Fold this protein.
Amino acid sequence: MKQVLIVDESPLLREYLNLKLIENDLDVDLARNVLEGCSKIRNGTPDLLILDYNLGKNEYLDILKQKKMNPNAVNTPVILLARRIEPKKIFDLSAYDVKKVYTKPVSPEPLFKTVAEILRVKMKNIDTGPGVVEVHVNENVIFVEISKGLNRDKLDLLHFKIRELVELYEIYMPKIIVMVSNTRLTFSDTPNLQKLLETIIWSCKSKIRFIRVLTRDPFVRQFIESQNDYREIQVVSTLQEAVGGLLRELSGDDDVRIAEILGDRVLSAGVSGGTESFQMRFDAEVPAQKPGLEALRETLKDRRIAVVDDDYVIQELVKNTFEKIGVSVTGFSHGGEYLDGLAKERFDLLFLDLMMPKVDGFEVLKALSARGNSPPVVILSSITQRDTVIRAFQMGIKSYLTKPIKPQDIFRRAIEILDPNF
C-alpha cells in the first residue's frame, strides 16, 4: 500500500486530507510541525510527501533537507501547499523533488489528480461534477451558498470550512442559512442533497430548527418537507423570511436586529429573468474576542498590507491594529498614491475607502482589474446604500466593513482572507 506523509500546521486540513486519501486506500501518516515531520522522514520511507510551505520561517526547508539526507527518502516526490510563494523560489525547490505547488485554499480535484499521477494509483472516489460552495459569517449566522450543482468533494470541504469559521468567530450556537441557487436538482441528486444537509447538521452541531434553506427549486422543498429527519428545517423563498425566522427563534420578533442584518447592509436576493440569482455578501461587524497575538503574528508574518483612506484616523487605526503583531501597514491618502506605489511594492491585502478626493475607491478597483494583479480588497466605508455595496462586490472585493470600525473586525477579516485552508 502506498504511503503518504502529510506535514501541515492546520489540524482541519490534515484531517480532511487524511479522510480523502484513506477513502482511496492509501496509507497516511500525519505530522503537525517541522520536528514531527523530520522525525517521520528519518524513520520512514513515504511514497509521497505533502508539505505545508508556511510552517514557519523557512522551516519547510528543514524537512526537505532531512529528506535529501535520508537515502531511503531522497527520491520521495513532494507536493507543496502554500498560501503564497514567490515564483523565483519555486525553481529552487526542484532540487528537492517538489513536483507541484498548490495554493491554499485547497482545490480537491487537481490536488488528488496529481496524487494519483505521482503514485500511479486510481483515485476512485473523486467527484468531477460541477458545484460551487461559498461560506460567510454575519452576526453569528453562517450563510452557505450552493450553486451550479452538488459536488460531493466540495461538500466534504464545506464541513471543514464551517468548522474553521466556527472556531475563528467563536460561534457557540450556530444559526445556518443554506442558499441553493443557479441549479435545478432532480431525483438523481437525492444522495448529494442528503449529504449537504447531514454535513451542515454535523459540522455545526446545531439544533435542526436553527437551519433555514433558501431556495426556489421545487424538488429541494419537496425533499426536505417529505423527510421526517428534516421536518424542523424551514424552507423559505426570501432572505427576509430566513433571517427573521431565525431571530424569532432566539429572541422574539426583533425588527431592529433584522434591519441591522438585512437593511442596506446586505445585498439582494431575487429572481432575474426567471432564473434564480442570489447575491449575498455581508458587512456587519461580528462581535468576537480578539484572537491570540501569537497566532496572529504567525498567520500574518511577512504580509504586506495597504490602507487607502483620506481619513488619517482610519489609516492610524489600521496601522496600530497590525503594529502590535509586527505587521507593517503602508498608508495612502487617495487612490492615485496607492496606484503609483504599486510600482515599488506589492501588497497581500488592501483596506480601501470608497469616497476619496482625486482618485476614489471605485477608480482603484477598476484600475486593479485592468492590471490583473489585484490583492484581496476589504472596503472600509460609511456608505451602506444597497446599490453601492452591490457595485463594489461586482468589482471583486472580498468584504465590506461599515464605519465606525473596530480593530477586532479588521483582525478577523484579515485572518479569514489571508489564512485560508478551505
